[in-house]
Design goal:
219 residues; alpha/beta; Rossmann fold; six-stranded parallel β-sheet
């Protein structure tokens, strides 16, 4: 970890406590459209992009007419009813400030759509700390495929071995490993340690990473 120059950040569940809200918004959108949905199944898929979540949770393709209607309505419900009341994860801003003070490049790699990235970062209270971001719109396939992370690396000009990802889902872990990027995971997204197997370390939240900062970045 001593050679880390770039930190790739997930948003939902990592910097913003939003995973449950995304699941509820999908469930509400589906109900409005008369589509059956299992909330628990949707929740387990949060972290994947809509291109993967919709066919797995609802049984039709994201690019179908039904898929587009569902995705659009879910986004409207999430932004109007849930986003304004969401809170940053504990320690999100202090951790990013510490990383910047240590001259780490910060880049966001999220399965959210491009139109939502700024709003999510603003709600997390860190939009002023992030210069670069990549979203599902900039990748052919969302997490757990590595496309978004590879796009993030391209923006920074760094090699995978000089980067570290911080994420909260098994899909972050798989995407990072497939991209050749080490990852540390946080539990504040709702996943257990056994779900995050493959991460170089698992911490409670960004505050916990900050408390163990020297161990994470100096060993």
């Amino acid at each position: 970890m001593r050679n880390i120059t770039t930190v790739i950040l997930d948003i939902d569940g990592t910097l913003l406590a939003s995973n449950d809200a995304h699941a509820f918004a999908f469930k509400e959108a589906a109900a409005t459209l008369g589509v059956e949905a299992d909330l628990d199944q949707i929740r387990r898929l949060i972290g994947k992009g809509s291109d993967k979540l919709i066919p797995e949770a609802f049984g039709f393709e994201a690019e179908s007419e039904s898929g587009k209607k569902l995705d659009d309505l879910k986004g409207k419900i999430f932004r109007a009813q849930y986003l304004p009341s969401l809170l940053p994860t504990l320690g999100a801003r202090p951790l990013l400030i510490r990383l910047l003070n240590d001259e780490k490049k910060l880049v966001v790699a999220t399965s959210a759509g491009k139109e939502d990235v700024l709003a999510l970062l603003q709600q997390a209270g860190v939009s002023d700390l992030i210069e670069n971001s990549t979203s599902a719109d900039e990748a052919e396939s969302s997490k757990p495929d590595p496309d978004i992370l590879e796009a993030a690396l391209k923006k920074t000009g760094e090699e995978p071995h000089n980067a570290l990802m911080i994420g909260d889902t098994p899909y972050d872990v798989e995407a990072a490993r497939r991209a050749g990027i080490p990852i540390i995971a946080v539990r504040c997204g709702g996943w257990k340690d056994r779900d995050l197997e493959g991460a170089a370390g698992v911490y409670e939240d960004p505050a916990d990473i900050l408390s163990n900062y020297d161990r994470v970045f100096q060993e």
